[in-house]
Amino acid sequence: MDALTIHEAASTTGWSARMLRYVERAGLIEPRRSAAGYRLYGPEELQRLRTLRELLDQNDVSLTEVGFALRLRRDEELSAALEGWFEEEPARPVDVPAADWLLWEQDKHEKLLAAATLHATQMMETR
Amino acid sequence: MDALTIHEAASTTGWSARMLRYVERAGLIEPRRSAAGYRLYGPEELQRLRTLRELLDQNDVSLTEVGFALRLRRDEELSAALEGWFEEEPARPVDVPAADWLLWEQDKHEKLLAAATLHATQMMETR
DNA sequence: CGAACCTTACCACGATCGTGTCAAGGTTTG
DNA sequence: CAAACCTTGACACGATCGTGGTAAGGTTCG
After folding, report:
1. pLDDT digits (tens, 9 = 90+) for A62-74
2. Which domain holds residue A10?
3. Are both B55 and B102 inside the same structural domain?
């Protein structure tokens, strides 16, 4: 057999066996398994483990953040939603006159009401 | 004055004042300040606060994750590093004597290789 | 067979996240 | 001036993260 078991992979990459399982659970590096369920790390996985360490050390990024980036990369819907939010129009809605806006400075009730209508119109706009 | 103070903004958006400061510290929404340093939330910020809440609720994402996505978006170097890691060649180095590797468990290896190539082509297709 | 591996599933524990609250002090306004 | 805001900073606290350990049980190999 030619692939490394978890402890062997750990000692050659500098990770702990515990962390290798953690990395796997984060979806970052998933080694194949032997018939009995043993994790088998091939050269590809070892390479990725080493570069993953570099990535973390050099870019001040955490394991879970890398995991999230991976999720972003795979979940197109999610990344589109985020992208949409980041690019949300900073322009104030023009068809909602400032009157509503000013009016709403009175007391809490009116404030809430105005906010509700504003919210509604904004939602209609974004649809 | 055309903007809301923090507690007003809180009650119209459903966030707490505490969380508004938290959101600001996460770099997500930074309202302008009055001369005395009071946070002033305009309609634009209120809009973003509401859509931020929707974003979190509908996409099972955390505030810090959105913050990280923003960081990714701004830090081109970081996102390039991550991108590089994700696309790291799954192909084994050819100049390293492949003998060991190739000998070693051919059936599985071929499966792996096939999967890797498939993955690569898929990725190329989506670009 | 027995030693030395591997597996999953827990307990532990400091660090950070998400959130509230409180304190000490400046600002606005009736 | 005093009430009612705002500010930053701190303490608190359950939940999760990052990491180590241990226990109970299956696998591999000399």
Report:
1. 999 999 999 999 9
2. 6-86
3. no
